[in-house]
Design goal:
The complex is a heterotrimer of chains A (380), B (232) and C (288).
Chain A: H1 2-24, E1 29-36, H2 43-62, E2 70-77, H3 83-95, E3 101-104, H4 107-120, E4 123-126, E5 140-142, H5 147-160, E6 165-171, H6 174-190, E7 193-200, H7 208-217, E8 221-224, H8 229-240, E9 247-249, H9 256-260, E10 268-272, H10 281-294, H11 300-321, H12 329-336, E11 341-343, E12 349-352, E13 358-359, E14 362-368, E15 371-378
Parallel strand pairs in A: 1-2, 1-3, 3-4, 4-5, 6-7, 6-8, 8-9, 9-10
Antiparallel strand pairs in A: 10-14, 11-12, 12-13, 14-15
Chain B: E1 3-12, E2 15-25, E3 30-35, H1 41-48, E4 58-61, E5 64-65, H2 71-76, E6 79-82, H3 94-104, H4 111-121, H5 123-127, H6 138-151, E7 156-160, H7 168-183, E8 187-192, H8 195-201, E9 204-209, E10 212-218, H9 219-224
Parallel strand pairs in B: 3-8, 3-9, 6-7, 7-8
Antiparallel strand pairs in B: 1-2, 1-4, 4-5, 9-10
Chain C: H1 2-32, H2 39-55, H3 60-88, H4 93-115, E1 129-132, E2 135-138, H5 139-161, H6 163-173, H7 175-180, H8 185-210, H9 217-232, H10 237-253, H11 263-277
Antiparallel strand pairs in C: 1-2
Helix pairs in contact in C: 1-5, 1-8, 1-9, 1-10, 2-3, 2-4, 2-8, 2-9, 3-4, 3-8, 5-6, 5-8, 6-8, 9-10, 9-11, 10-11
Classes of the chains: A alpha/beta (380), B alpha/beta (232), C mainly alpha (288).
């Protein structure tokens, strides 16, 4: 009984604090929302993404904001891919924080809020998830290349090396399931054979039985399009079974080596190419600022959310210039199509496509000495 | 005087069960407390050993007020209670049950000798030494329970209906054993429904009815009574 | 056949760890009948304690010993400062269970607050692949199996052949009688909480040399702990060992017939069936 009252009291307090914040908010503030993986097996993603946004906001506000608006954000947690927390976060962000734009991540949470977003005309950007299901959804724009556009790049590389049979293991989540389908179809279209497919529970840590099955099938390569640390645990179990076949995937979370140790050597994954050593002046300032603050190089997730914040800045500028209210999401949406080409932190420009995706340079990475190294490039 | 109970009231589960009971046991004396099922005998016994809380009244053991002491403390003072059932450790061997009785009160110094004594009184326990206690027959279990009690050389043994569930032959054997224990100088307070056995053994007898002690008399007088039924 | 042998080996490795988890919780439950939900927290706590000592540049073995020591103290403290006062006030089983759950959740959140959500690996244990015919395992696996069984054998020897062990068995088989012969059950309770926490600390160590620690590793360990106990039979510690082995092997072999995501479902199905057919568990005795 007592604890029930206490929880009630806490809820009321939190509610009142958040209300009072929204009242004290300066009229000249542009606040947007973020729904990221702040806890759970993908919490590393949320951390790096928020770092990217944070640096962009500091820079924008230090330069005097945008047309009289100071930038700020509120971050909410979808607990590494859960839809209910994502939907609650969406309701909170739109009803209490009154945001008109949200930066989201992960496929399932992003998909779960899109019908509400369309209804309320909230513009949503995803710079993290890569499921092909995120295409062609009103008000959703992906600044990450989607998996079925990237995965063939990896598989073709392995096919050309002469590998022919493939085993797959993937998490029971939206993106891994659709990526597994896409990967399988592509492999078979090349003439390859899929000898085993296993779906695993998200967040599982013991994959030794699964690896035993893979070992029995003796495939040439292994595809694991799962996310977060799941990939690390799969790699570790596979190597533990003494399987030498190359493993490829679609993700590399920066803390993966904590799980795998040196077992991740040779792991292959393709992604947009964010080159920290680029000569592009904008890239250079971002990398320097990030390094100064966090004492490490930014990855492409941090870059994507940094870039997204600047895209928002450009959209707000366009709307205010026309005399519109940037808290109207439909105006932000319209402003994209005034000119879908935006300056990219990857160097040069990126272009939004009508189907909700974008074009960026792609690169194939291989883990060497515990770090992703570029082994093949394709321009955007 | 070894044990003195005066004007004791005891409540159990919100109901008063014992009303102003008074009794005493002298050193080495064999006393029986008889009465019907539900008269409050077992409750009184459990209160004396400290398992149940007293209402008002006095419980003194060797002159010391023991009302707020737990059974675990009282057993170290030589006041030992034996349950009518569940009075041993089913998953332990016979030997372990006996050893434990000594270990529990830190009285292991002359264990070997005491064990010999117990085995002399209950030879069957020696044969079953390695067996689990729950494989013993009902009579053997009773023997083991009493054996555990006498192993620790008690000054006062509180026995709760030891004859319950035993065949007439076994009851007779048990009577002999109790007599022997008494002869060795241990005081006994025996609670029994088996009136005949109790009266034949005890030097003094209390009769209890609906929570009150209604009669106290000697062995000789009780034996002379033609019928005991008027007491109940 | 190769796959079967490989999976069986995996099952035995996992099952050994499960058996250790089972006895660690079982000794507490069998003796005190306290549904020690906070056992999961002690597991996480042990793992992080060992890690913290290694971060302070203490070598692996002394870190392990210090970590196990603090975990044992933590387990005793939970009994002494939480459960014991509640039992004294004759609190119901349910309210003790809720308290335990509270400690579990609060403890886990605290670890999350202090150390963050990151994965924390315990490095320094040599891991090499060993292949025997079609069966492959690692040095960590081998060490896990050996240590689990050494610890389990030591535990049974302790319970069977020492005075303290005898008293623990006495309290667990007849607590009321134990009080009447003069055993101080409170001290025995604290003792078994200490032993259980030491054992779960060893299990946490074995798991952390294999997989990094995160603040939420405790819940899974707790689930396995009590499922093995109820599967094997309450009141019989050997039951927990049997339950652990069965669970480990079943979990591993099930993959031959069902997709791997059904693993957890199968575990609960086994528990459900056993409890339905033999409510007292595989080795448990009927309650009269």
């Amino acid at each position: 009984m007592k604890s029930g009252k206490l929880i009630g009291l806490i809820v009321v307090c939190v509610f009142m604090i958040s209300i009072s914040f929204s009242f004290t908010a300066d009229a000249k503030e542009f606040k947007f929302g973020q729904i990221l993986a702040m806890t759970g097996s993908g919490s590393w993603y949320g951390m790096t993404m928020e770092r990217g946004t944070g640096i962009a906001i500091e820079e924008i506000n230090a330069a005097g904001g945008v047309k009289g608006y100071n930038f700020s954000y509120v971050v909410e947690d979808h607990k590494s891919g859960l839809t209910t927390p994502a939907q609650n976060a969406f309701r909170k962000l739109t009803s209490i924080d009154k945001v008109s734009a949200i930066l989201s991540s992960f496929s399932a949470p992003t998909l779960s809020i899109m019908s509400m977003a369309e209804q309320k005309k909230i513009i949503v950007f995803n710079g993290g998830a890569s499921s092909p299901k995120l295409m062609n959804i009103p008000f959703l724009h992906n600044t990450r290349m989607l998996g079925d556009e990237i995965l063939p790049f990896t598989l073709k590389y392995l096919w050309d090396k002469g590998y022919r049979t493939m085993a797959t293991i993937y998490a029971n989540q939206t993106a891994p399931i659709s990526l597994n389908d896409a990967g399988k179809k592509y492999w078979e279209s090349l003439g390859g054979k899929v000898v085993s497919e296993q779906m695993h529970e998200t967040g599982a840590t013991d994959f030794t039985s699964e690896a035993s099955v893979i070992k029995a099938k003796n495939p040439d390569i292994i595809l694991c399009p799962s996310t977060g640390l799941d990939v690390g645990y799969v790699i570790k179990a596979v190597r533990k079974m003494g399987i030498k076949a190359p493993i490829c995937g679609t993700e590399h979370s920066g803390d993966m080596e904590k799980v795998t140790g040196d077992a991740s050597e040779g792991y292959l994954f393709a992604s947009e190419f964010f080159d920290v050593n680029s000569d592009d002046p904008w890239t250079k300032t971002f990398v320097a600022a990030f390094k100064k603050k966090f004492n490490e190089d930014p990855d492409f997730y941090a870059a994507n959310y940094y870039e997204l914040t600047y895209i928002l800045k450009e959209l707000v500028t366009r709307v205010v210039d026309k005399g519109g209210d940037p808290y109207d999401g439909s105006l932000l949406e319209k402003a994209i199509w005034d000119n879908p080409k935006f300056k990219s932190i990857y160097g040069g420009y990126m272009k939004f496509k009508e189907n909700g995706t974008c074009e960026k340079p792609v690169v194939l990475f291989e883990i060497k000495g515990g770090k992703p190294m570029v082994i093949k490039k394709r321009s955007g | 005087m070894l044990l003195e109970v005066r004007n004791l009231d005891v409540g159990y589960q919100g109901k008063q069960v014992v009303f102003g009971a008074s009794l005493r046991v002298d050193a080495g004396e064999f006393v029986a407390l008889i009465g019907h099922n539900g008269a409050g005998k077992t409750t009184l016994l459990k209160t004396i050993c400290g398992y149940l809380k007293t209402g008002s009244g006095d419980v003194r053991y060797r002159g010391e007020d023991i009302r707020n002491l737990s059974p675990a403390v009282n057993v170290k003072k030589g006041l030992v209670f034996v349950h009518q059932e569940k009075s041993l450790f089913p998953n332990l061997s016979v030997l372990e049950n006996l050893q434990l009785a000594a270990y529990a009160i830190g009285k292991a110094y002359n264990l070997e000798q005491r064990l010999k004594e117990v085995y002399r009184i209950f030879p069957i326990l020696k044969d079953r030494e390695k067996q689990m206690a729950n494989t013993l027959s009902g009579g053997q279990q009773k023997q083991l329970a009493v054996g555990m009690a006498i192993l620790v050389e008690p000054q006062l043994l509180l026995l709760d209906e030891p004859s319950l569930g035993l065949s007439p032959n076994l009851v007779k054997d048990l009577g002999n054993v109790l007599k022997e224990i008494s002869n060795m100088g241990t005081a006994i307070l025996l609670v029994e429904q088996n009136v005949k056995m109790a009266i034949s053994l005890a030097q003094r007898i209390y009769v209890m009815r609906t929570g009150q002690i209604i009669l106290e008399d000697t062995h000789e007088n009780m034996m002379k009574r033609e019928s005991l039924w008027d007491l109940f | 056949m190769g796959l079967f042998l490989q999976l069986l080996t995996r099952g035995i490795i996992t099952g050994s760890l499960y058996a250790l988890l089972g006895v660690s919780w079982g000794i507490i439950y069998n003796t005190t009948r306290t549904f020690h939900f906070a056992h999961g927290f002690i597991y996480t706590f042990a793992s992080y304690s060992i890690l913290v000592f290694t971060w302070m540049s203490v070598p692996l073995i002394p870190s392990l010993l210090l970590g196990l020591f603090t975990a044992t103290l933590a387990g005793c403290a939970v009994e002494y400062f939480a459960y014991l006062p509640m039992r004294k006030k004759s609190a119901s089983q349910l309210s003790i269970f809720l308290t335990a759950m509270g400690i579990m959740i609060a403890g886990q959140s605290l670890i999350h607050l202090v150390f963050g959500p990151d994965s924390r690996p315990l490095e320094g244990f040599p891991e090499h692949v060993i292949s025997l015919g079609t069966v492959t395992f690692t040095t960590v696996d081998l060490f896990t199996v050996l240590l689990c069984w050494i610890v389990i054998v030591c535990l049974f020897a302790f319970l069977g052949h020492t005075k303290a062990g005898m008293m623990i068995r006495a309290v667990s088989s007849n607590p009321e009688k134990a009080t009447f012969i003069g055993i101080d059950s409170r001290r025995i309770f604290v003792l078994v909480f200490g032993i259980g926490s030491l054992l779960v600390g060893i299990a946490a160590f074995l798991s952390t040399i294999d997989k990094p620690a995160t603040p939420n590793i405790g819940l899974g360990a707790l689930l396995i702990s009590f499922i093995t106990v109820f599967l094997g039979g309450v009141g019989r510690l050997g039951g927990a060992v049997l339950g652990g082995i069965i669970l480990g092997i079943a979990e591993s072999l099930v993959i031959m017939v069902l997709p791997t995501e059904y693993k957890m479902m199968v575990i609960f199905l086994i528990l459900f069936l056993v409890v339905l057919i033999k409510p007292e568990g595989l080795l448990g005795k009927k309650i009269a």
